[in-house]
Inverse folding.
C-alpha cells in the first residue's frame, strides 16, 4: 500500500499527516514551537522536520511514496552554495521591506501583488542591502528550504510560494521587469505544486527507514494547503477561514487581481483561487470573551434575527480587505450592557464583512458563489455559521479537514493540483 506524507509549517508549530490512497488519515504527528521571545530559526525548523518524521510509526514510514511540505507564505531566507542560511530568515509578517517600496513601485506594474512591505520580493530587495548578502547564492522560501533538506537540490520552488516574489503565474515565467532588476543571486526554478522534484536523499531514506524510491514534491503555502484540505473543488465554491483573522478564498475560472482592495489570485491548475484577508476575526472576539463565554453566549443568540448593531471589529486601526485602508478605525460602539447582544453584534458584523468580501470578488469578475466551506477555530460555532449563511445566502458547511497538513498530503498524492500538468 502506498502512503503519502504532508507536512505543514505554520506559525505555532509543525504538523504531519500520513494518508493512504483513499485519502484516509493513517497517522498524525505534531511539533509545537515554544512560546519564547527567541525567534524561530532554520535550526528549529530543521529539528521540527526530523522530529516529526521520527514520530511516524516505522511500518508506515516504509510505505510512504511521496512527501510534500507547505510553509508560511513570504517566509524567506538566503542560503550559501551548500544550502546553509547566511542570515536570519524574514518571517511572513516582517515589514522591513517597507523601506524599498518606493523603489519597487518604480519597477513593478501598478497594483501588483509584490507592492507590499511583506512581499517576498520586498524582503529580497531589503536583504540585498545587508552585508551578509555577499555570501548568499540562493533565495528560498521556507517550504523550499525544508524540501531541500530532504532531497538535496537547491533553488527549487513552486508557483504558490513564488507568487509574492513576482513570478508570473499566468505565463509561468519570471516577468521581464523582474529580470531587469539583475539580482546577483539565483532565483528559484518554479514548478507546479505537487510536481515530483527528486527522490529522497539516500542518507535520509536510510536513516529514517523510508523507501529509496520515496520522492519529494514541490510544495505550497499554508493557506492554500488549508484550501486543498477543505473539499472545495468546483468554480463558485469557497473557503472562509475563521481564525484570528478572516481569510476568504473563492475558486474561479477568472483571475481577479487588484491591490487597491487587497485582492490577489493564486493559480490552481487551470482555475484561480481568488481572495483576500481581513484583519477582523477571532482575535477581536478573544479580546472581549473567553472561549467558554463565546460558547455559552452564542447559544443564547437567535441567529435568525439580525442584530441592529453595526460594527467594524478590529484590534487596531487598519484593514486589508474588503476595505484596504491602513488607517481604517475600529468601530465597536455603542456597546450594549448585555454581553449576548454585544457578541451578537460582533458576529453579525464579521459576517457582514465576509459577505461584502465575496460580493466584491464577484463584482470583480470571479465566479458566482455557490457554497462556502469553513475552516479555522470559528468553524465550530453553529450560531455564527447560521448568521453567516443568512448573509451569504448559500450553504455554509464544515471543511472535510481543517488541517493544512492534510491538504499537503493530498498534494503529495496528486489529488491537489489538477489542470495544466495532466
Amino acid at each position: 500500500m502506498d502512503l503519502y506524507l504532508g507536512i505543514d509549517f505554520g506559525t505555532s508549530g509543525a504538523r504531519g499527516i500520513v494518508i493512504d490512497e483513499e485519502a484516509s488519515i493513517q497517522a498524525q504527528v505534531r511539533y509545537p514551537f515554544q512560546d519564547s521571545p527567541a525567534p524561530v530559526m532554520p535550526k528549529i525548523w530543521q529539528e521540527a522536520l526530523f522530529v516529526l518524521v521520527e514520530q511516524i510509526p516505522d511500518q508506515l514510514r516504509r510505505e510512504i511514496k511521496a512527501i510534500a511540505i507547505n510553509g508560511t507564505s513570504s517566509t524567506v531566507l538566503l542560503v550559501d552554495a551548500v544550502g546553509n542560511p547566511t542570515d536570519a530568515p524574514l518571517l511572513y509578517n516582517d515589514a522591513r521591506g517597507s523601506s524599498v517600496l518606493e523603489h519597487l513601485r518604480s519597477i513593478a506594474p501598478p497594483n501588483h501583488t509584490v507592492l507590499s512591505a511583506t512581499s517576498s520580493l520586498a524582503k529580497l530587495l531589503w536583504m540585498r542591502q545587508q552585508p551578509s548578502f555577499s555570501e548568499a547564492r540562493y533565495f528560498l522560501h521556507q517550504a523550499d528550504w525544508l524540501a531541500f533538506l530532504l532531497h538535496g537540490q537547491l533553488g527549487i520552488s513552486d508557483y504558490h510560494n513564488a507568487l509574492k516574489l513576482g513570478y508570473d503565474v499566468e505565463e509561468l515565467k519570471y516577468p521581464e521587469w523582474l529580470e531587469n532588476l539583475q539580482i546577483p543571486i539565483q532565483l528559484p526554478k518554479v514548478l507546479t505544486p505537487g510536481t515530483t522534484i527528486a527522490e529522497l536523499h539516500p542518507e535520509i531514506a536510510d536513516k529514517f527507514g523510508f523507501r529509496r524510491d520515496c520522492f519529494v514534491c514541490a510544495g505550497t503555502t499554508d493557506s492554500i494547503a488549508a484550501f486543498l484540505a477543505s473539499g472545495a473543488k468546483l468554480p463558485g465554491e469557497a473557503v472562509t477561514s475563521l481564525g484570528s483573522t478572516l481569510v476568504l478564498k473563492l475558486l474561479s475560472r477568472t483571475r481577479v487581481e487588484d491591490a487597491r482592495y487587497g485582492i490577489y489570485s493564486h493559480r490552481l491548475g487551470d482555475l484561480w483561487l481568488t481572495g483576500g484577508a481581513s484583519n477582523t476575526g477571532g482575535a477581536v472576539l478573544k479580546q472581549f470573551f473567553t472561549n467558554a463565554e463565546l460558547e455559552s453566549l452564542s447559544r443564547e443568540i437567535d441567529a435568525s434575527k439580525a442584530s441592529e448593531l453595526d460594527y467594524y471589529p478590529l484590534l487596531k486601526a487598519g484593514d486589508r480587505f474588503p476595505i484596504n485602508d491602513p488607517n481604517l478605525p475600529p468601530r465597536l460602539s455603542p456597546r450594549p450592557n448585555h454581553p449576548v447582544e454585544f457578541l451578537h453584534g460582533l458576529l453579525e458584523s464579521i459576517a457582514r464583512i465576509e459577505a461584502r468580501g465575496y460580493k466584491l470578488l464577484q463584482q470583480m469578475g470571479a465566479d458566482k458563489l455557490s457554497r462556502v466551506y469553513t475552516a479555522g477555530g470559528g468553524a465550530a460555532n453553529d450560531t455564527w455559521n447560521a448568521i453567516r449563511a443568512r448573509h451569504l445566502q448559500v450553504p455554509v458547511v464544515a471543511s472535510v479537514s481543517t488541517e493544512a497538513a492534510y491538504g499537503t498530503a493530498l498534494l503529495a498524492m496528486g489529488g491537489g493540483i489538477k489542470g495544466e500538468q495532466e
